[in-house]
Amino acid sequence: MHIGFNDGIDSDSDRILASGDEDENTPCSNFRINEDRLLNKFCCSRFFRIILFIIALMIIYFIYTFLFSHSHAASQSENQPSFNHSKANQIIHSLCDSYKHGAVSGDICSKLCNSPNWTLSDLYEGGSKHVLKLKENDKNIILKMHLPYITNYDHVDPKVSEEEFTDKVTDIINEQTNLNWPKRYKNHLIKTLWPSYKKNPNGNSLSEADRRSLWALLQQDEFINFKILQLSRVVPKVLGTCGHVYQAEYLIPFRMKGYYMNLKAKILVHLMGTLKLFYEFLNDPLQWCDVKFENLGLSADYPKRFVVMDSDMLYTETKLRALLTSQKCVTDDQCMHFDCESRCDNTTGHCTDRLNDNVDVFCKKLINRLFGNYWSKSNRYLAACHEAQNATKRLADLRLVWSWSLSDV
Ligand SMILES: Nc1ncnc2c1ncn2[C@@H]1O[C@H](COP(=O)(O)OP(=O)(O)O)[C@@H](O)[C@H]1O
Ligand SMILES: *[C@@H]1O[C@H](CO)[C@@H](O)[C@H](O)[C@H]1NC(C)=O
Ligand SMILES: *[C@@H]1O[C@H](CO)[C@@H](O)[C@H](O)[C@H]1NC(C)=O
Ligand SMILES: *[C@@H]1O[C@H](CO)[C@@H](O)[C@H](O)[C@H]1NC(C)=O
Ligand SMILES: *[C@@H]1O[C@H](CO)[C@@H](O)[C@H](O)[C@H]1NC(C)=O
Ligand SMILES: [Mg+2]
């Protein structure tokens, strides 16, 4: 069926569809001529004209009611996605309860709990996260957490001194990122994680609620990545925290639709922007092991890159190497870390370093899904995915293209 509406973007594919429809016109119009002759005979009588009129009215009525109920249902499900309201309420209420009892703290607690001016609009309960979406005057507030309640997280013993606590925080960050922050950067690091931190030379700077909240946040890999890998400019900003919950910058989630060629070209540039930034991260390129469109989002601030909306499995190269090579194995499948491939080295009984690279996975899981088998040598990005070549050389070539065409990312 070809419907004659064009909204500009769709015109290419409409033309393709339209050319396919032409063949059908000839038999159709022949049929119409025969039909007309028959109809003319019937229509001579007034009786048949009235019957026809009634049938036409009924058809119009059915079409109208069908379309109306259809669009009505669609708009309802768009405005109010079905989610577990009572659970979403329970999560917020138990958080605000803890806050009001002084058990947790954070810079968005007051806005969230004291003068609530938001409405719940969604709760996502996925494999590894709970994501609450609130709406405040048309503004979206995204609250993320691994487990839903503060009681789900380990506590820190209140008898631990603040020095010990902050030392331990530094250890956790180094363990997670392998960036080896020296202890003398400790205050700077705590301030990055907990913006209201001010070192008090005479006593404790962090209250028990502060410590409890920060400790729960540090049990969530994505929170650490958002904060510490912020320098890479490929993760969303953390706008604030309350207890174990962190507010992420709102991103427009990517939706896989039937995209058209000029839009695909733009998406390709966005993908390359993200890839380029992975390789530019300090001296320790980022490795991403959970690559899919659903985990990417668009930020209003960045016109030439996707942001890694789901950053659980974003690692520095050294961290991923440590993770893989410390894994004991007997067979190769014990060494696959989602999209990051490794094999079992049976001489050591441990997994090898990563064998594929970000470019491989971007090509396989994103770019090929978008472009299929279409590619041309004149598009260097697509060619990089299709020409069999040495990975080191491919990356060197890509870096050169990036520095020319994506210097502003
Ligand atoms: N920053 C954000 N902006 C908008 N929506 C988000 C954001 N973060 C997560 N979401 C929504 O929540 C969903 C799940 O988030 P994600 O981090 O991918 O969780 P999981 O680790 O369970 O896959 C996403 O698909 C998206 O719809
Ligand atoms: C909603 O969440 C509550 C727990 O808060 C649970 O008991 C209930 O079964 C859930 N309802 C649905 C429809 O999943
Ligand atoms: C709450 O939102 C309304 C608009 O929806 C706004 O007029 C009002 O000032 C807000 N109140 C507070 C306390 O922010
Ligand atoms: C290691 O595994 C390979 C196959 O994966 C096998 O050919 C080889 O013999 C094994 N070596 C040892 C020392 O077990
Ligand atoms: C890839 O090419 C680089 C030089 O461009 C070379 O040093 C390296 O050994 C090659 N690797 C493989 C696996 O061929
Ligand atoms: Mg995800």
Mind sketching the topology for me?
Layout lengths: L10 H11 L3 H19 L2 H34 L5 H16 L8 H5 L5 E7 L4 E7 L2 E7 L16 H16 L8 H8 L14 H10 L3 H8 L9 E5 L2 E4 L3 E2 L7 H19 L6 E3 L7 E3 L8 E2 L5 E3 H9 L18 E2 L4 E2 L6 H14 L8 H7 L4 H15 L4
Antiparallel strand pairs: 1-2, 2-3, 3-5, 4-5, 6-8, 7-10, 8-9, 11-12
Helix pairs in contact: 6-7, 10-12
Structure commentary:
The chain crosses the membrane at residues 47-67. It is built from 14 helices and twelve strands. It has 409 residues and is α+β, with helices and mostly antiparallel strands. Helix 6 packs across helix 7 (186-193) and helix 10 runs antiparallel to helix 12. The structure holds adenosine-5'-diphosphate, 2-acetamido-2-deoxy-beta-D-glucopyranose (4 copies) and magnesium ion. One 2-acetamido-2-deoxy-beta-D-glucopyranose binds next to helix 14.
List descriptors.
12 strands, single chain, 14 helices, 5-stranded antiparallel β-sheet, binds adenosine-5'-diphosphate, 3-stranded antiparallel β-sheet, binds magnesium ion, binds 2-acetamido-2-deoxy-beta-D-glucopyranose, alpha+beta, 409 residues
Number of strands: 12
Radius of gyration over all CA atoms, rounded: 29 Å
Secondary-structure class: alpha+beta
Trace the largest sheet across and list its strands. 1-2-3-5-4
Instruction: Report the mean per-residue pLDDT as an integer.
Output: 86
User: Roughly how many Å apart are the termini?
Assistant: 43 Å
Strand content: 5-15%
Gross geometry: globular
In terms of per-residue confidence, which ranges show pLDDT below 50 for 5 or more consecutive residues? 1-33, 69-78
- Written as H for each helix and E for each strand, in order along the chain, the element string is HHHHHEEEHHHHEEEHEEEEHEEHHH
* Count of DSSP-assigned helices: 14
Largest sheet: 5 strands, antiparallel
Provide the helix percentage. 40-55%
Bound molecules: adenosine-5'-diphosphate, 2-acetamido-2-deoxy-beta-D-glucopyranose, magnesium ion
Subcellular location: Endoplasmic reticulum membrane
Keywords: Disulfide bond, Endoplasmic reticulum, Membrane, Signal-anchor, Transmembrane, Transmembrane helix
Organism: Acrobeloides nanus
Membrane topology: Single-pass type II membrane protein
